[in-house]
Protein backbone atom coordinates (compact mmCIF):
# COMPACT_ATOMS: atom_id res chain seq x y z
CA UNK A 1 0.00 0.00 0.00
CA UNK A 2 1.10 3.57 -0.58
CA UNK A 3 1.77 5.58 2.57
CA UNK A 4 2.19 9.03 0.99
CA UNK A 5 1.09 10.17 -2.43
CA UNK A 6 2.63 13.50 -3.38
CA UNK A 7 1.37 15.12 -6.56
CA UNK A 8 2.50 18.34 -8.19
CA UNK A 9 3.65 19.97 -4.97
CA UNK A 10 4.72 23.57 -5.27
CA UNK A 11 5.75 25.88 -2.44
CA UNK A 12 6.94 29.45 -2.80
CA UNK A 13 8.37 31.92 -0.31
CA UNK A 14 8.15 35.35 -1.97
CA UNK A 15 10.59 35.07 -4.93
CA UNK A 16 11.98 31.69 -3.88
CA UNK A 17 10.44 28.57 -5.36
CA UNK A 18 11.29 26.05 -2.63
CA UNK A 19 9.48 23.15 -4.31
CA UNK A 20 8.44 23.01 -7.92
CA UNK A 21 5.99 20.39 -9.13
CA UNK A 22 7.29 17.60 -6.88
CA UNK A 23 5.57 14.24 -7.23
CA UNK A 24 6.53 11.03 -5.48
CA UNK A 25 5.09 8.02 -3.70
CA UNK A 26 6.27 6.65 -0.37
CA UNK A 27 5.47 2.98 0.02
CA UNK A 28 4.41 1.31 3.25
CA UNK A 29 7.39 -0.05 5.19
CA UNK A 30 9.87 1.68 2.92
CA UNK A 31 12.96 3.58 4.08
CA UNK A 32 12.98 6.57 1.74
CA UNK A 33 15.79 9.11 1.90
CA UNK A 34 15.35 12.59 0.45
CA UNK A 35 18.81 13.86 -0.47
CA UNK A 36 19.70 17.26 -1.80
CA UNK A 37 21.93 20.29 -1.42
CA UNK A 38 21.13 23.14 0.93
CA UNK A 39 18.05 25.00 -0.28
CA UNK A 40 16.60 22.14 -2.32
CA UNK A 41 13.41 22.18 -0.26
CA UNK A 42 13.98 19.00 1.77
CA UNK A 43 12.76 20.45 5.07
CA UNK A 44 9.87 22.16 3.34
CA UNK A 45 8.80 18.85 1.79
CA UNK A 46 9.05 17.06 5.12
CA UNK A 47 7.03 19.73 6.92
CA UNK A 48 4.31 19.50 4.29
CA UNK A 49 4.23 15.69 4.70
CA UNK A 50 3.96 16.24 8.47
CA UNK A 51 1.05 18.64 8.01
CA UNK A 52 3.07 21.47 9.57
CA UNK A 53 2.89 23.71 6.52
CA UNK A 54 0.79 23.87 3.40
CA UNK A 55 1.72 23.75 -0.25
CA UNK A 56 0.70 26.52 -2.65
CA UNK A 57 -0.29 23.95 -5.23
CA UNK A 58 -0.52 20.19 -5.46
CA UNK A 59 -1.66 17.58 -3.03
CA UNK A 60 -0.34 15.25 -0.33
CA UNK A 61 -2.37 12.22 0.70
CA UNK A 62 -1.51 9.88 3.54
CA UNK A 63 -3.18 6.49 3.26
CA UNK A 64 -5.47 8.08 0.74
CA UNK A 65 -6.60 10.95 2.97
CA UNK A 66 -5.49 14.55 2.39
CA UNK A 67 -2.89 15.75 4.90
CA UNK A 68 -4.34 18.93 6.41
CA UNK A 69 -2.58 19.02 9.79
CA UNK A 70 -0.36 16.99 12.14
CA UNK A 71 -1.57 13.49 13.01
CA UNK A 72 -0.57 11.13 15.81
CA UNK A 73 0.27 8.33 13.38
CA UNK A 74 2.86 10.58 11.71
CA UNK A 75 5.88 10.96 14.01
CA UNK A 76 8.43 13.71 13.40
CA UNK A 77 12.08 13.95 14.49
CA UNK A 78 14.02 17.16 13.87
CA UNK A 79 17.74 17.94 13.96
CA UNK A 80 17.17 19.86 17.18
CA UNK A 81 15.13 17.62 19.48
CA UNK A 82 13.91 20.78 21.30
CA UNK A 83 13.36 19.11 24.65
CA UNK A 84 11.82 21.27 27.37
CA UNK A 85 14.69 21.97 29.81
CA UNK A 86 12.40 22.08 32.84
CA UNK A 87 10.89 18.66 32.17
CA UNK A 88 12.62 15.38 32.92
CA UNK A 89 13.52 13.14 29.99
CA UNK A 90 10.56 10.91 30.86
CA UNK A 91 8.15 13.84 30.87
CA UNK A 92 9.56 15.14 27.61
CA UNK A 93 9.19 11.77 25.91
CA UNK A 94 5.66 11.35 27.28
CA UNK A 95 4.38 14.76 26.21
CA UNK A 96 2.41 13.44 23.24
CA UNK A 97 0.77 10.82 25.41
CA UNK A 98 -0.21 13.55 27.89
CA UNK A 99 -1.84 15.46 25.04
CA UNK A 100 -3.60 12.23 24.01
CA UNK A 101 -4.98 11.91 27.58
CA UNK A 102 -3.20 8.63 28.35
CA UNK A 103 -3.37 7.90 32.13
CA UNK A 104 -0.13 8.55 34.08
CA UNK A 105 0.69 4.93 34.97
CA UNK A 106 0.24 3.79 31.37
CA UNK A 107 2.28 6.75 30.21
CA UNK A 108 5.19 5.94 32.52
CA UNK A 109 5.18 2.31 31.37
CA UNK A 110 5.17 3.23 27.67
CA UNK A 111 7.85 5.91 28.12
CA UNK A 112 10.14 3.52 30.02
CA UNK A 113 9.71 0.87 27.31
CA UNK A 114 10.46 3.34 24.55
CA UNK A 115 13.51 4.74 26.34
CA UNK A 116 14.85 1.18 26.51
CA UNK A 117 14.25 0.76 22.76
CA UNK A 118 16.41 3.81 21.94
CA UNK A 119 19.17 2.91 24.42
CA UNK A 120 18.15 5.28 27.23
CA UNK A 121 16.85 2.75 29.76
CA UNK A 122 16.61 4.23 33.25
CA UNK A 123 17.19 7.85 32.14
CA UNK A 124 13.58 8.95 32.84
CA UNK A 125 14.39 11.17 35.81
CA UNK A 126 17.33 13.03 34.29
CA UNK A 127 17.03 16.48 32.74
CA UNK A 128 17.98 17.31 29.13
CA UNK A 129 21.09 19.29 30.17
CA UNK A 130 22.43 16.14 31.81
CA UNK A 131 22.42 14.28 28.49
CA UNK A 132 24.93 14.29 25.64
CA UNK A 133 23.85 15.51 22.19
CA UNK A 134 23.47 11.93 20.99
CA UNK A 135 21.34 11.04 24.03
CA UNK A 136 19.10 14.06 23.46
CA UNK A 137 18.63 12.95 19.88
CA UNK A 138 17.69 9.46 21.12
CA UNK A 139 15.16 11.08 23.47
CA UNK A 140 13.67 12.95 20.48
CA UNK A 141 13.29 9.65 18.65
CA UNK A 142 11.67 8.04 21.71
CA UNK A 143 9.22 10.96 21.92
CA UNK A 144 8.15 10.29 18.33
CA UNK A 145 8.03 6.49 18.72
CA UNK A 146 6.07 6.43 21.96
CA UNK A 147 2.83 7.26 20.17
CA UNK A 148 3.41 4.21 17.98
CA UNK A 149 3.40 6.08 14.67
CA UNK A 150 3.02 4.19 11.41
CA UNK A 151 5.43 6.58 9.72
CA UNK A 152 8.48 8.49 10.93
CA UNK A 153 9.57 11.72 9.26
CA UNK A 154 13.17 12.55 10.17
CA UNK A 155 14.78 15.88 9.22
CA UNK A 156 18.58 15.62 9.38
CA UNK A 157 18.29 14.06 12.82
CA UNK A 158 22.05 13.42 13.10
CA UNK A 159 23.23 16.65 11.50
CA UNK A 160 24.43 18.19 14.74
CA UNK A 161 26.14 15.25 16.48
CA UNK A 162 29.78 14.25 16.18
CA UNK A 163 30.74 11.72 13.53
CA UNK A 164 31.29 8.72 15.82
CA UNK A 165 27.99 9.26 17.62
CA UNK A 166 26.33 9.68 14.24
CA UNK A 167 27.62 6.29 13.01
CA UNK A 168 26.27 4.68 16.17
CA UNK A 169 22.87 6.38 15.90
CA UNK A 170 22.58 5.36 12.23
CA UNK A 171 23.34 1.74 13.10
CA UNK A 172 20.80 1.77 15.93
CA UNK A 173 18.17 3.29 13.66
CA UNK A 174 18.78 0.56 11.07
CA UNK A 175 18.34 -2.13 13.73
CA UNK A 176 15.17 -0.48 15.01
CA UNK A 177 13.77 -0.15 11.51
CA UNK A 178 14.52 -3.77 10.62
CA UNK A 179 12.53 -4.84 13.70
CA UNK A 180 9.55 -2.50 13.28
CA UNK A 181 9.50 -1.77 9.55
CA UNK A 182 7.90 1.59 10.24
CA UNK A 183 7.77 3.66 7.06
CA UNK A 184 10.56 6.24 7.24
CA UNK A 185 11.13 9.42 5.23
CA UNK A 186 14.61 10.67 6.16
CA UNK A 187 16.11 13.96 4.99
CA UNK A 188 19.86 14.41 4.67
CA UNK A 189 22.56 16.03 2.57
CA UNK A 190 25.05 13.30 3.45
CA UNK A 191 25.46 10.87 0.54
CA UNK A 192 27.04 8.13 2.69
CA UNK A 193 24.19 8.33 5.18
CA UNK A 194 21.62 8.24 2.38
CA UNK A 195 22.85 5.03 0.73
CA UNK A 196 23.53 3.33 4.07
CA UNK A 197 19.95 3.77 5.23
CA UNK A 198 17.75 3.85 2.15
CA UNK A 199 15.73 1.43 0.12
CA UNK A 200 15.36 4.33 -2.26
CA UNK A 201 17.02 7.74 -2.53
CA UNK A 202 15.17 10.67 -4.08
CA UNK A 203 17.62 13.37 -5.15
CA UNK A 204 16.29 16.93 -5.19
CA UNK A 205 17.89 19.75 -7.15
CA UNK A 206 18.38 23.17 -5.57
CA UNK A 207 16.21 26.23 -6.27
CA UNK A 208 13.77 25.31 -7.43
CA UNK A 209 13.55 22.00 -5.58
CA UNK A 210 12.62 19.35 -8.10
CA UNK A 211 12.98 15.59 -8.18
CA UNK A 212 16.21 15.20 -10.17
CA UNK A 213 16.86 11.47 -9.86
CA UNK A 214 15.83 8.37 -7.98
CA UNK A 215 18.12 5.54 -6.94
CA UNK A 216 17.02 2.12 -5.73
CA UNK A 217 19.57 0.92 -3.21
CA UNK A 218 19.42 -2.83 -3.60
CA UNK A 219 22.36 -3.61 -1.29
CA UNK A 220 21.70 -6.46 1.16
CA UNK A 221 20.81 -5.77 4.79
CA UNK A 222 22.09 -5.69 7.49
CA UNK A 223 24.36 -2.96 6.21
CA UNK A 224 27.30 -1.11 7.66
CA UNK A 225 29.29 1.92 6.57
CA UNK A 226 32.08 0.93 4.22
CA UNK A 227 30.22 -2.03 2.66
CA UNK A 228 31.48 -2.53 -0.88
CA UNK A 229 28.00 -2.58 -2.39
CA UNK A 230 27.20 0.76 -0.75
CA UNK A 231 30.36 2.41 -2.06
CA UNK A 232 29.28 1.66 -5.63
CA UNK A 233 25.94 3.39 -4.98
CA UNK A 234 27.74 6.32 -3.35
CA UNK A 235 29.83 6.78 -6.51
CA UNK A 236 26.68 6.74 -8.61
CA UNK A 237 25.04 9.43 -6.48
CA UNK A 238 28.18 11.60 -6.44
CA UNK A 239 28.31 11.35 -10.24
CA UNK A 240 24.71 12.60 -10.43
CA UNK A 241 25.58 15.50 -8.11
CA UNK A 242 28.42 16.53 -10.44
CA UNK A 243 26.03 16.83 -13.39
CA UNK A 244 25.23 20.48 -14.11
CA UNK A 245 21.81 21.57 -12.82
CA UNK A 246 19.05 20.96 -15.33
CA UNK A 247 20.75 18.03 -17.05
CA UNK A 248 19.54 15.40 -14.59
CA UNK A 249 17.53 12.69 -16.18
CA UNK A 250 15.02 10.58 -14.33
CA UNK A 251 15.85 6.91 -14.03
N1 LIG B 1 9.80 30.25 6.12
C1 LIG B 1 10.53 30.59 5.05
N2 LIG B 1 10.56 31.86 4.61
C2 LIG B 1 11.26 32.20 3.50
N3 LIG B 1 11.99 31.32 2.78
C3 LIG B 1 12.01 30.06 3.18
C4 LIG B 1 11.30 29.61 4.34
N4 LIG B 1 11.48 28.27 4.48
C5 LIG B 1 12.32 27.91 3.48
N5 LIG B 1 12.61 28.96 2.70
C6 LIG B 1 13.47 28.94 1.50
O1 LIG B 1 13.06 27.84 0.68
C7 LIG B 1 14.19 27.14 0.17
C8 LIG B 1 14.16 25.70 0.62
O2 LIG B 1 14.38 25.66 2.02
P1 LIG B 1 14.47 24.29 2.84
O3 LIG B 1 14.83 24.64 4.24
O4 LIG B 1 13.26 23.49 2.62
O5 LIG B 1 15.72 23.59 2.10
P2 LIG B 1 16.62 22.40 2.62
O6 LIG B 1 16.93 21.57 1.41
O7 LIG B 1 15.99 21.71 3.77
O8 LIG B 1 17.93 23.16 3.08
P3 LIG B 1 19.02 22.78 4.23
O9 LIG B 1 19.67 21.52 3.78
O10 LIG B 1 19.96 23.96 4.21
O11 LIG B 1 18.26 22.64 5.51
C9 LIG B 1 15.42 27.90 0.64
O12 LIG B 1 15.82 28.78 -0.38
C10 LIG B 1 14.92 28.67 1.85
O13 LIG B 1 15.64 29.86 2.03
UniProtKB/TrEMBL annotation:
Keywords: ATP-binding, Nucleotide-binding, Transport
Pfam families found in the cross-reference section: ABC_tran
Family matches, as InterPro entries: AAA+_ATPase, ABC_transporter-like_ATP-bd, ABC_transporter-like_CS, ABC_transporter_ATP-bind, P-loop_NTPase
Domain ABC transporter: 4-231
Top-rank lineage group of the source organism: Bacteria
GO terms assigned for molecular function: ATP binding; ATP hydrolysis activity
Coiled coil segments of this chain: none
Signal peptide stretch: none
PROSITE patterns for the chain: ABC_TRANSPORTER_1 (PS00211), ABC_TRANSPORTER_2 (PS50893)
Protein's recorded name: Nitrate ABC transporter ATP-binding protein
Amino acid sequence: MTAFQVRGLTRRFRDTVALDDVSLDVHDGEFLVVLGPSGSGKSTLLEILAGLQRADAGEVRYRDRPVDGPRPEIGVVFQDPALYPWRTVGRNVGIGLELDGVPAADRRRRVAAQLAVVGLAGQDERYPHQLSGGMRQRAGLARALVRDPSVLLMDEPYGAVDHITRVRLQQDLLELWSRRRTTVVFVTHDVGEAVLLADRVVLLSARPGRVAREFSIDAPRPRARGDKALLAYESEVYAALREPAGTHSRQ
